[in-house]
Amino acid sequence: MAATFTSAAFNLTTLVQTDDKISSAISGHYFNNALTVILPGTNSLPETVSECFADQLAYQLHGLPVYRLVEVPFIHAFVKNGLIYMLSANTQLDTHDCVAVTPDGWLILHLTKDTYHELGLEATKQTHQQKNSDTYVVKVNLLASYFKPGKKNYDSTLWCLKNRLDLVFDFHIAWEPKDDKVCSSSVSAYFLDKCAKVERRCLDRRTQVLTSLPCPKVQADDPEGTSGQSCHFQEVFEWIGAVACGVDMTVKDEDTSYTSSLCCPEPSQNCPRCCLFQVSGFITPGTILKVFKALRQYTTAHTDLPPASLTVHGFQDSPIFTNNCPHHLHICGDNLMTFVYLPSNQCWLYRAVAS
Amino acid sequence: MKCTTAAENSNPVPVKPTNFYAEKTQSYVYLKTSLTIEDENSSELNGNQYKFLILQAMKETLGQVGAATPVDLLKVFGDGTCIIRVPSRSTEKIWAALTLYGSTPSGKRCAFRVIHASPFLLGLAFNSRNHRDATS
After folding, report:
1. Among A115, A132, A239, A237, CA closest to A169
2. How far apart are CA A220 and CA A225, in angstroms?
3. What are the residue boundaries of the Ribonucleases P/MRP subunit Pop8-like domain, all occurrences included (chain B) (predicted)?
4. pTM attached to this predicted model
């Protein structure tokens, strides 16, 4: 048998909705490209959910030199006093250099072999995949006590980034200040004179109403559907994907089964109306946590409906995915998290990562 | 692989189990593919025509037996792209067959291009590389 083409990690955890693991899973997933919310039984998104995006500010910086990210004013103002999310834009993980700054204060340079050897900074130990694709990861701890001007490590890092190579990138950036009195837009003001252009990155939202949608039956304590009363968790995940992509899953007759044999997993129930809300942009974990809580409130008030779900789509080209694990891209770099809200305060958490 | 652990909860009642299930392999791979045909607007193709061309491509390179691999055409978009689902163990062969297919039965030159491949259908809903999403 041929080996599988792409490598994938896929798992499901059953949790209580108020579990700390959920908030740590969300806040550990730094770079999020999009959200998909499937909400059965309603025509429109509840206002409590759409309000969550009101104070989400994200920007795109054009042509920012990387050495600007190790300068002391930047570290003091933004890395130490809040959660900073920066990811290089329009760079591809498998062929280009990628740069990210994480909220826990790491500058991560994911470099191709040529750039790495010219740059002269020390890389972390290569993983098996990084060895195969000849890439190197340089990690700089911006919050380390020894990382300050006058110390060797700081001076050589700054010199290498500034003088060796002209590393200039476009960045997605968002900042969540610790202090409520500070506006998160100050990060854009700081970079105004340091890069070519600062642009506000707006969210792209779309709401659709689906009618007569077949929904799979789900039981929290029987994810594998052994009793025959509920569907297998993998089929449920495929169903969520089909709804998100707009695939028609109505029962097939002779004519249409020629093209596709995909249909809603059994046992299922018919849902007369269902709201599909999709939003894309550069979305911070703080916003996602708010959306998760707002949806939790909504679903606990409407327990008689088929389960709602929230999916977080990570950036394919992010050099790390959850909890600073190195991310690799071979064929595809999908990293997804899906929450399915179940009755009696339970929740399924799917994690899917492919490379 | 499956392992189940009953996690201890600090609250006396209720004790909730934490179940953990992991799957190492996925049975399908989903491909987002675009088709261009010489002098023809491929966005006018319907599902049956699209599927016919995919089967032609598989027959030409893989023969009758290879073409018997179940391939599902899940959705055809207005711009000549589609989502297909193939068994993950035959993905390379089908991808190769699509790539090698050069002309339609009526003799027009054509090309399949795989834009995005993923073992998860949900992964095709958004493509962070061009900030365009699938359903647009």
Report:
1. A115
2. 10
3. 28-101
4. 0.88
